[in-house]
Every structure is written in C-alpha cells, then in structure tokens.
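[Meeting: bench + compute handoff]

Bench side (C.D.) handed over the final construct sequence. Compute side (W.E.) agreed to return the predicted structure before the next meeting so the bench team could plan truncations. Sequence as handed over:
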Amino acid sequence: MARDRIENTKLHAAANRAAAICSALFIVVSLIGAPAASADVIYTTLEPPGTIIPPGTLDIDLDNDASADFVLTLGLFGNLTVGPVGNGEAVVAEGAFGVGTARRYLRCETVSGTHNFQGATLPMGGLWVGVENAYIGLRFSIAGETHLGWAHLDVLAGNSSPLLKGYAYNSIPESQLGGDTISPGLTAPPSITCPPDVAIRCDESSDPSQTGMATGLDSCFCPTAVTFEDATAAGACPHAWVITRMWTATDAFGMTTSCDQLITVTDPDVPMLTCPDDVTVECGTSLQTSELGEATATDACDVAPVITYADETSSVCPTVITRTWTAADACGNVATCQQIITVEDTTAPIILDCPVAPDLSCDEACLAALPDLTSGVSATDVCDSELTIEQTPASGTMLGLGVTDVTITITDDCGNSSECPVSVTVADDTPPTIVCPENVTVDAGAGTCTAAPPDLGVPEVDDNCGIDTVTNDAPAIFAVGTITVTWTVTDTGGNAATCEQLVTVRDVNAPTLICPVDVVVECGDATNPANTGGEAVAVDLCDPSPVVAYVDSTLNEATYAFTRTWTATDDSGNVAACEQYIIIRDSTPPVITTCAEDLTLNAGDSGSAALPDLTAAVVVTDNCDGEVVITQNPPAGTVLPLGKTPVTLRATDATGLADACLVTVTVVAGGGDDDPGPGPVPPFEPGFPCGSARYLLSRFLMQSLFGVPICGLGWFTSMPVCFVGLLAIKVRLRRGRRARR
C-alpha cells in the first residue's frame, strides 16, 4: 500500500537516566544540561493510515528499508494477528510461556527490553476489540543488532478494518543502552513555561542560570529538552540593549512549543579611574605620559573607556603642573582624577660652543687688549630661553705676553650656571730683523780640499720684545766650493728671521800632470795622441775629473819637429802644464815621376850652345814636402861644346833627400839636323874613359854625392854602388841638425 512518511530523526529525550521510565505523570526531572538517557526515536507517520480489508495483510517496515519486519494479518473471520518477518524477532506477549496474546500498550507507557517477547505469531482478540490508539511493542534486528519499536493502530469493533497510523523504533541498539526503552504516543506538542522578564546590569551574566530557565513537558507529562535563541536590539548606548530570548521545548518526536523572555541590559555606573602617582622631575625631562605614567580605567561594561588628560601650569622654580585625567565609557559615564607634576630646575645650562681661543698680537709695549668673547658663546637650557652671559676678566683688559685664562659664565633664571674656560694667548708675532756679515773667501789648506772655519763675523739683529738666540748652521769643516751659511735669530716670542752668508773656499792646488814621452813619427803618419803615445794623465786632489787638453806649436822647418803643450784644469780653475816633443822623420826621398826629354841643340857660329833650363819639365812627388827644390847640373845658361853633354836634374826635399834623372843634351854643328857634329864631349875630364878605374871612382862620388847614375845606368842599377856613400852623407847631415838644436 502507498504510504507517505514524515521522518523525525535523532530526537533527544531530556529525561535523566535514573528517571527514564516516565510512568508517573508529575515526575520532576533535572534541568537542561543535566545527564539524561537518550533515545534516538525514528518515527514514521502514515498519511493516510494503512488499512486491511479481510482477508488481507499489512506490512510494518520499522526501519523503512523497503523490507517488511512484521506483518498484520486479518483473517476471514476478523481474527487479527501480528507476526515477525524478515528482520522482525518478536512482539511483547501477555503470557510468559507459549503463544500468548500481544500486549496492548497505552499512550505514554514504556516498552522495555525487560518485557516478555515471544517469537511466535500472537493472535489478537479480547483486549484488541474496539480500541483506538493502541500500541504493540516490537523487537527487530538492524545489521545484527536488536532494537525496540512499536506500531500505532486503531482496531475497530470485531477486529475488522484496523488502521495502521504509524510506527517508530529506537535507533540505539539494546546492547548499548543497557535496557533499551521507547515510549509510544507523544502525538501532541509539548507545553512550555517561560521565566519572567528581567533587567540586568551590563556586567551581569545573561546566562539562563542567572536570568531564569524555561521548563517543558511533553504530552506524556515528561520533561522535554528546552533550548533558546537570543535576538538583541540596540539600546540608547552601546552597553544598553534588549535581549529577546525565545525558549523552545522539543519532545522526543521533534514537536516544539516556544515562548519569549525579555532581558533588559543597562550601564548605570561610571568607570573606575586610577591616576598615576604624583612625581617630581627635573626640568627638561619628558612630560609625556609614557615617562610620567598613564591613568588606567576599568568599566563594568566598556573594555576600553576613553582616557584623556589636560594640564594646568602654575608658579616657576619649581613649576607645578596639575594633570587632570578623565575616563569616559561608551554610555557617557565620566570619572576624573588628578596627578601633580612638580618640575624642578637644578640643571645648569648646556654649553654648545665656547668661543674660539683668540691669539692676540702684542703691540710695541708687548701688550694686547682682551676682546669681548661672549658673542662666541652658544648655549641652551631646557627651561630658560634667555640666558645671562658674563666674562671675567672683562673685555678691554690689557694682557701681557703668554696665556691668560678667561672664564665665560652662563646663568639661567633659577641660578644654575655653567662655565666656559677660554685660554687667550698674547703672542709676539713680529719677527726680529737680521743682517748677515759680509761674505767670506778663504783658501783651502795646502794639500787639502778643506779649510778651517773662518771668522764669519757677527750679524746685526733687533726685535721689539727681546732677542732670545742667534745661531748659524756653519759646518765644522768647510769644503772647497761655495757654502751658504744661514744665520737665524729667534726672539722671546719664538719668531725667527734668517739671512744667508756665502763662504767661498778656494782650491789653490793645481792638478798633477804627466805628459807622454817624446816621440818620432814618420812623415805622413797621423800625429793625434793615439799615434803619439796617448794622452797626458792628470790627477787633482779636489777634482776627480780635471779637464785635460793640448795645443800643438807650429812645425819647426829647421828641425822638422813641433811641441805639444798639455794642460790640466780643475774645477777651481787651477792649471798644470807639460810639453811633449814630437819629431817628424822624413826617411823617404822625393820621386821624379817625369824627367825632361833628351835634347839636341844646334851650335852657332861659335861652335857651342847655351844649355836651357830643363827643370820645368820635371814632375816630382814627395810624401812630406809640398815644395821640392829641383836643380840642374850643369845649370841653365852653361855653354855646351859640340857633342853629348849629360845634364843631371835633381829633386831635393827639405831634409836633403833627393832623386835625380839624367838628360843627354847633344850640341851639333852647322845648325842643321843632318850635321852630326864633332860627337859627344865627355862631361868630366879627358882621360877618364867610361869603365876606367878613375871614371868609376868619379861616378861613384857623383853617385854618392848627387845620385847621378854611373855610366848611364838607371837609379836602381847603380843604387848598391852608391848606397854607402849616400848613407854616410845623411848621417852627417842629421848630426849637424841635432848639434844646431
């Protein structure tokens, strides 16, 4: 059959476990919050109720799992029975043994696990005829756990057409409750009694234990669960309001009844204000509340009342400040208190800057006037903005040389003072005057490069306040050269002046000079020092590098020598000199490179001819002498007879060395070339034919003296014969030259 089911889940009974069986109608149970037995009753109401048309059956599905737990059967003759099926176990029976009649429960009775449950089908009759709101106690299984329940039905007369109105079960198994119970019925809403309206202070609790508790009874007159909800409406200030408390009584099947209680909250009290202690502080100390303390306030209703203060100042030295504190809560309740703050000034002014200590210059009398130093003072005072500044000694006081202590005193209105010491120095900053003695020149000692300290003289000095010292930096020994001696004069004020005096030490010792030895060089060779024995060597006591130079004299043509004069000059200008004699030796005779040609002359009527000058035709070279003397023998102009006449042309250098060549001059008669003439005329006396002993001797002498070839032989052929004689002549000539020197 179709059934509409309204399910109220997990409704908590409020009865005490000790008063779980509510059989008496006027049992007073404990208030909400006390320990109570709990019966989670799952109730199903059938709308419309289920009916059975005989013969027929009606299923009872206690846990609504779509599987019948019990079945109601109406026989053909009106015999109504109930029996377990599926998870159903048994019903409460009247009899203890065997199959008995199902017990009919009245509304508000309690089905307990202590009752007699039978597993067989129990026929209903007798007590079940013409009964409304009858209940059958049931036991069935959910997931292997035994639960108690009941079925609510009306049985009309003769057991015909019963109506099944609903059923319920306890969701808590018997094993967990220790005697599971369930009360059938409870079909009417519970009743509720509200506590009276109350007024409380804002600091009082609005808990029901203080403001009263509602009570509720279900339709079986058993206490119900009572709950409440508060709705708050604002009042005249933040801590005054009205609470509307709605109480609700709920029975085991979720049926409720409500009532309202009014709770009026007020804030009538001022805050509790505590001022900080009175204090005495030094001027300049912070007057902030963080330093001098803050007032504290508590309020029954306002957790943070507003705290303010105002100061009023009176008197000076000390200054008294009356600090009035005020605390106001959110509802305008105000409390006040006072704190007395005494401010003393025992602190002297703080000097920020003292005057810079002036350095004064004295006048001609070595005195200086003290200036006003107070303008250079910078000071501050925590209490006094206008400080008194005084100076001792007073400005204008005449001070002597040296340091004078000046005291600057800074005083505030309360008589506290600080001092600023200043040391004023009067100095003589006018330097003395000094004029150095004349410059001095002295000679170094013999064989030395130094001189003993000379007499330097005394400088002229002067000062306005007095001379302290006169010194100089003269060395103990004066070296060669110019030395600057600095004179220093210092006055009594430490001022100094200087001047310079020049002391010149002269080096009067000439260098030592050693000349190279005299040398002989070949004519034509270089005559520089590298080829004539090197340079002269100079040593000087004071100058490590004297300047060495030389000058050569003009070549002496007579001796064919020159003198080389060496000089050594030190850096003081002292000079040493020596001479080197250099002889130019000429051992190479001139060489006639071109001789005159043989010549033929025509004799005139006299039968002779004059010999012409043949020297111009001679070309000669010499290694030394630029001008070689060329002579001819017989000389030009000699009258030559007919025949051949030998003519000797000689080239002689300055040293007498000579070369010669022979020219044959032939004089012919008749004046023509075809006339042979009388033949050659011997150049020497007749009777000395060429090849005779006398001729050879004559030629030897000619060869030796004049280099004339013998018998027309060339120079080189006759050289061995003439060499000895020529050498003897040259030796004699050289000896003669040296003797003349």
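W.E. noted at the follow-up: Confidence is low (pLDDT under 50) at residues 1-39, 672-696, 707-733, 735-741. C.D. will use this when planning the next construct.
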